[in-house]
Amino acid sequence: MSNIRRKSADVLEAIGNTPLVKLRKVVPENCADVYVKLEYYNPTGSKKDRMALAMIEAAEKSGDLKPGMKVVEMSGGSTGAGLALVCAAKGYDFHVVSSDAFSKEKLDMMAALGAEVDVIESHGGGITLELLEKMRARVNELLEDPNTYYTDQFKNFDIVMGFQSLGKEVIEQLDKPVDVFCDAVGTAGSLVGVSTALKKAGQNPRVIVLEPSSSPMITKGEKGSHSVEGIALGFVPNLLTPETYDEARAIDEKDAREMALRLSKEEGIFGGISGGLNVFAAVQIAKELGPGKTVLAIVCDSGLKYMSEGLYSNP
């Protein structure tokens, strides 16, 4: 299949159609093949562009979002940037509630794309349930204006449709079935959307949920503080029901960061920490499966979003 994009009518048509790459160096010999979707090829450098477009277009179709209304969301930055992009292209004002716990690059990108950004102060920069509750309280204040539409990403099932496109692309790009799909979850939209698309195509992947070991809500029922942006928000997301996955694993954040650095140096894949977490787990699973099997993971966003955070400082 050609990787050349066709001419787009606007920036929204540039969302999706991202490369699928086989890892060559970070996967040892005598292991399963590991393929990764490079989602930083989306316009704002993140997989969240897919769900942002899906949420806005579904709201327009239902009539819940009308011209002249303001869109509101709380976000660590990637969903917010995606929504800012979509709202800019479609002519909606966008107000996002975020925090200083998230990278400066993400906050700056949302503002650059026209969003009004509220920054909620965290305690020590940790991503915790308490921080999210403060952000949600600010959202509730904004929703007192009747001319607002809240995309409510954590309860919005339209995001699954947005991520089914990613799964359909994998089916077209890969000439064999996926044996295991592993994914770190925030909303769980990509995990559910991709696995749904694979299963609709007749595949039967083992679906493994990932989270940081410092915030093992799914694996142990314990919340905690961590710094892997976009995932593990201190609660089990609504989309993540028992029938949507087969297993859950907790990954040390140190291993995720080290894998992100390895991907950059050894594979030329310049992604963020969650991508490092996904790939670290995928390589472990590949070792367990052995040759002849296929593991799928997602590099969720670009390393450019984390330059001030320190991930790539003197690696």
Walk me through this protein's architecture:
The chain contains 9 helices and 10 strands. It has helices spanning 48-62, 78-90, 104-112, 129-142, 158-173, 189-200, 217-220, 253-267, 273-289, and strands at residues 20-22, 33-38, 70-74, 93-99, 116-120, 148-150, 180-184, 206-212, 247-251, 294-299. Strand 7 (180-184), helix 6 and strand 8 form a beta-alpha-beta unit. It starts with 19 loop residues before the first strand and ends in a 16-residue tail after the last strand.
The class by helix and strand makeup works out as: alpha/beta
Number of strands: 10
- The amount of beta strand, in percent, is 15-25%
Query: How many separate domains?
Result: 2
**CATH topology heading of the largest domain:** Rossmann fold
CATH architecture of the largest domain: 3-Layer(aba) Sandwich
Individual helix count? 9
Rg computed from alpha carbons, rounded to a whole number of angstroms:
18 Å
Helix share bin = 25-40%
Distance between the termini: 36 Å
Encode the helix/strand succession as letters.
EEHEHEHEHEHEHEHEHHE
